[in-house]
Queue: 2 jobs
Job 1
Amino acid sequence: MGLEALIFDVDGTLADTERDGHRVAFNLAFAESGLDWEWSVELYGELLAVTGGKERMAYYLKHYNQTFQPPQGLSLDRFIAQLHQAKTRHYVQLLSAGAIPLRSGVARLLAEARAEGLRLAISTTTTPENVDALLRCTLGAESLDWFEVIGAGDIVPAKKPAPDIYEFVLDKLNLPASACLALEDSKNGLLSARGANLETLMTLNGYTESDDVTGALLVVDQLGEPDSPMTVRQGESGQTRYVDIALLRTLHAS
Ligand code: XBP
Ligand code: MG
């Protein structure tokens, strides 16, 4: 079967959202709630081992802040859920202020894919509102319609590295994994996509450059542009200097 659809991860793949977006929004929510928690750039890198903002906060408390007790009358889950709502509000505000651009090559590749009639979908751990805000603020509101399926957040109970979110998206697309390619940036994302039998192209970033990329089809530092070529870390890209649809079709066919 030929290549019919591209399935994009969001955080770290479409945009470098973690360090200057999600992390900052978590810290703003903590300060607003009178908490003295402060997630440094380095600590956040460790916390990224766990996907999902609520799950990440629970992991932080379990491993880095064991004495914390939620306010009287509030379960820990409820407290985390409230804090996470505030975090999402701050994150969307940061995006609206233009804090996070798309990564190199993303807008170009999406335009090429649409021009060639490839179907597009999103598979992410992040909250749906965050996807909506990122697309709206970078590509315009109409870009939400470019993606036939947006699988996001708590729509599946088991987040990446579990394959569930990719399986959900494949089911909604009504396509076999063999007709699609996944685009990811992290080990957890790669495990999730490979768990759903998807061949995966990876664009690494500051937080994921040392991740285990075993099993990825091609690993690059960025999708790149004609005037900003990619560096290939693993796999074969021939003479191509940036990721375009022709390269994706060749990789898929191989
Ligand atoms: C990214 C994540 C998310 C975000 C935070 O996953 O792990 O948890 O850091 O988002 P992906 P929420 O790369 O698969 O998009 O706080 O909304 O959960
Ligand atoms: Mg990611």
Job 2
Amino acid sequence: MTIIGLDDTDSRTAGMCTTYVGHRIADELGDAGHTVDRVVLFRLNPAVEHKTRGNACVAVHTDATPHEAFRTATEIVTETAVFDDEQTNPGVAVTTDSTAPLKAFTVSTVRKLKTKAEARNALPADALTQTYGTGQGIVGATAALGAHRSRTDWTYELIAYRQQPHWGTERSVNAESVFETSKQLHPTIWDTTDSVEGDIVAVPRTPCPVLYGIRGDTPAAVKQAHDDICSEPVATTQLFQTNQGTDMHLQDASIPAVSDDSAYRLSGTVTTDPETRRGGHVFFAVSDGDSTIQCVAFEPTKRFRETVRQLRCGDVLTVCGEVSDGTVKLEKLRVEKLTTTERCVPRCPNCKNTMESAGSESGYRCRSCKTQAEGKIQQSVERQLECGWHEVPPCARRHIAKPLVRGGYQAETHPET
Ligand code: ZN
């Protein structure tokens, strides 16, 4: 088997899309009489998106010879990639060897920032490569070669592409049909819509050739959803095997071990009450006793912030998300234990008014009744927040993040749909 690895050829400004280039390559090979076994859409470290770009790669598995596969891939990349966009630095790699070191490189590309040199070192001896621009594309292209061996839990995305004259114009997709199929096929398909925001998550807003993408657990379900959706004419479709919705980017770690640009699953106790700052972002801190880390639910995570605002000092959590600038950007969290008491200033036993501080180290007193108390008292608090897993809504979900509806969690879940 020959594997073609293709790095992110997306252009934000001109609207090209890696999945489309992958589809074109698969199509061209099919037209030439070759078998295409699968096309893999593989999400890499989401932290890369804001750094070097290239947070997705595509692999095409075919029976074409390596040279023919390489020629087809480079021709199509040259023809379609938007080289005017300086952020677009595609890479192509082709091999027939999918050995273990490649798998390890692929997994680490999902979890860390990898360099061009590291990618070159991981490439099999028989690899044919072509890079453009800065050459950064070799990282994703190499990662794509090992993608299919890097995991066993696969999900699927069916992408419907627009007819070329429509690219860049407003998309015409019947919202009712999308909400209906989303309801019918949920949770086998997920992140198609956001039922609370009323958003159609499956339809992108960028000027790319994608009309919509349906993500789900089985090829049959995503195809069914595609059949059910009414829209402008679809030019072509491609089924991708993906690592979307899997949390493959998350690593278990302790707070002192984290570093920027990787994503983690961390345990800790809330040490500062949630604070809403300018822009509507909600911050709090968790500690594991020795180390403390700041966590944030950004404004675009919408109603998830309501959950976060209910946290209190003393709550025991698992938090998940990418660390950047020393802060965990929350994707989901598990409330393991809720504190049911809080320390507060005592009330006067006589007049029931809140006492006042009697000065540092001197406790509290009631000025009118002259009663005294030694210090703060423990008082029980009512909690509305429920234990278990809470997550950001579909409209704010990263492609790689696992929606709670996919199951497999060791605790109760509160899925957002
Ligand atoms: Zn009093």
